[in-house]
Protein: Hydroxyphenylacetyl-CoA thioesterase PaaI
Amino acid sequence: MTEATTEELGGTPETLDHPILADDRTAAWLGLKVVKLADGHATTTMTLREEMLNGFGIAHGGMIFAFADTTFALACNPHLGSADTITVASGVDVNFLRSGIPGRTLTAVADRRAQTGRSGLYDVQIRQSVPGGEDEVIAEFRGRSRTVPKR
Structure:
């Protein structure tokens, strides 16, 4: 397993680099920070801001999905990039277990579960910080990947 830390990739926790983030305006808007990258693994964080809430004052499901989906993409694609291929989602399932609370830090941890040929299976767990307590799981995301030629 090839693992990259912030220092090895020439960044800080706020600027850990991955080629797919260079032009990803959604990840930038989310405030996504890459904490760890390895072959088939990514850990990211973001803070849940007011503009990410739905009409009930809790995290909009689309924000949680986008956060998990970006972390999934980071785990699927090599942190050094590839000249010939990209790995994209072929399908996902997401289960929302708890409400995301404004101001809390969310952490997404993506891990490859299986890889066969050009297809892969990844699990992403999304947790939120709890003041004075242990982080709690707010969503589980399962992604199916497919590696395809670059266009």
About this structure: Residues 5-15 have pLDDT under 50 and may be disordered.
